[in-house]
Amino acid sequence: MIQAEIIKLRSNCIVNQTGAVIVQKNLQIATGYSGTPPGIKNCFEGGCKKCTNKIVKGDEKHLQLDRCTCTHAEANAIIHCSMLGIKTGDSNTVLYSTFNPCRECIKMAITVGIRRFVCYDTSKINYEILEQTRVEVTKLDKQKIQYWVKELMREYEDK
What we know:
About 40% of the residues lie in helices and about 15% in strands. The chain has about 160 residues and is an alpha/beta fold. A five-stranded mixed β-sheet has the order 2-1-3-4-5. Strand 3, helix 4 (about 105-110) and strand 4 (about 115-120) form a beta-alpha-beta unit.
């Protein structure tokens, strides 16, 4: 999860910075962060109208997924596996996310064979789909992970 926190720093989404890491047999095989697809202006430059409207205008009606230009971190990690030809159908494949995966990302993850999700907030996860597929969900304490991220950063700054 610490890797997902670090990857999150690359996110160019101004509303929801998210990082995701896919791990197989304890090896990191792909990462992803939330942001606009290649060739589209990033959120900070106004590339996603949903994010711009929410931040600048406080417009909550633009929160629908179909209006968002950004690709979710979880989807980006899955796409990177596909682009690199990495198979994810192993029973030990885990997706770590700094957010709660949406319904679409859960469906994609199940389709490519991810068998476990690890995230901070599990309250909004669609368990109906997961129960049918026997995919596990593990909730981590965000404060504990952030403590270790800060410790690592402090060690790095001290050098």
